[in-house]
Amino acid sequence: MNRAASSESQRRAANGSDAQPLRGEVSISPGRRVWLRFKRNRLGYWSLIVFVAAFVISLAGPLWSNDKPLVVRYQGHFYFPLVKSYPETTFGGDFPTPADYLDPFVRDRFGAPGNFAIYPPNHYYYDTLNYFSKGSNPAPPSRENWLGTDDRGRDVFARLVYGFRVSVLFALVLTAIGTLLGVLAGAVQGYFGGRIDITGQRLIEIWSALPELYLLIIFASIFEPSLILLIILLSLFGWIGLSDYVRAEFLRNRMQDYVRAARAMGLSNWQIIWRHVLPNSLTPVITFLPFRMSGAILALTSLDFLGLGVPSPTPSLGELLAQGKANLDAWWISLSTFGVLVATLLLLTFMGDALRNALDTRIADAVKAGGGQ
Questions:
Q1: pTM across the whole model
Q2: What percent of the chain has pLDDT over 70?
Q3: What's the rounded Cα separation, in Å, for the pair 150 and 337?
Q4: From 1.10.10.920, 1.10.3720.10, 2.60.40.10, 3.20.20.120, which CATH number describes the 157-370 domain?
Q5: Is 127 exposed, middle or buried (CB count within 10 Å of its CB: 0-12, 13-18, 19+)?
Q6: 111 CB-contact burial (10 Å; exposed 0-12 / middle 13-18 / buried 19+)
Q7: pLDDT, averaged across the chain
Q8: Local structure of 161: helix, strand or coil
Q9: Cα distance between residue 53 and residue 144, in whole Å
């Protein structure tokens, strides 16, 4: 009886669940087990929630940081400036140019009886220039500009919101492309081995020896910098490190009994790679995802700081840091941007540590045995 109870207790510990098992209960999947271990790490779990929430809020940036009203009611008609651009003549102006909703004349028209306009909490877009501001730029934080303005009069808070969104989207795309290329290259070398592995390693060594920064400078001088160009250039080198880990996992797993059984059943090499070897070699791939994202964000920030990144007026954390360096008396620019960058990297680091511990069963079992979080 004691031996059966001990075996059942060990099974529940391995499954990552402390709940009493029911009769006929089916063992949870490995993915579910990893998720339970990840949730047990409170710092990493809450870092994931905060990071996802911040990213979702940044995606909805136009709803709460924009220079256009969300809804306008003028002379009995409703207008939605976020969806459609309206000329100034629509609201009683003299020119058919797009309406400037920060213009005191337009605001006065909305304040007439029967008219109204619902503005976002922050009245500025990332490239909005407030021509009606009476102060000099860069201006310190105020009731109108929560985190002040930069040297061109643009709202720092709005540029941080949209700059964070650009950085995360850039990191997601770059991580996805680099992961795909790294897994493909490492899988082919590790599974087939022999001359394919040796030739691939020599080619990778030659390719990795190319000066990446010099290539970026050359291409930036030839072509107009853009996010697409940066993604292409950085993707050419971002897969190399991951391919080494995937190659090592495939070299270790290709001689396992389940691979030999699959060959004996007549499965093709690609079927064996996709169905059997790859699922058992994904631990380093998944573990490195948050760290690869933080590296991509740092790369974009560094390039923008050096003037080799995205063109103006695209919002960028690196461009704001460069402005802070050029305007040392405008402390609010550097301080707020540095705070957002550090917080983002810390969240990704905590997520990566928690994910690594969740995938490593030895660490997870040791933490549970010790009663730690």
A1: 0.84
A2: 89
A3: 12
A4: 1.10.3720.10
A5: middle
A6: exposed
A7: 86
A8: helix
A9: 25
Cα–Cα distance measured from residue 296 to residue 174, given in angstroms and rounded to the nearest whole number: 7
Evaluated on CA atoms 279, 281, 286, 289, the torsion sign reads: negative
pLDDT at 74 over 80: yes
How far is Cα 159 from Cα 171, in angstroms, rounded to an integer? 18
pLDDT above 60 (res 336): yes
Q: What pLDDT is stored for residue 311 in this prediction?
A: 83
Indicate the domain borders of the chain. Answer: 67-119, 157-370
Is the backbone of residue 266 left (phi > 0), alpha (psi -120 to 50) or beta?
A: left
Render 94-117 in DSSP notation, one character per residue: S--SBP-TTSHHHHHHHTSTT-EE
DSSP assignments along 328-350, one per residue: TT-HHHHHHHHHHHHHHHHHHHH
Per-residue model confidence (pLDDT) at position 131: 79
- Contact predicate 79/67, CB 8 Å: no
The residue assigned the tokens 């461009």 is 319
pLDDT of residue 18: 44
Mean pLDDT in residue range 224-232: 85
- Cα R_g (the chain), whole angstroms: 27
Look at residues 130, 128, 132, 106 and name the one whose alpha carbon lies nearest to residue 117. Answer: 106
| Alpha carbons 127 and 140: distance in angstroms, whole number | 18
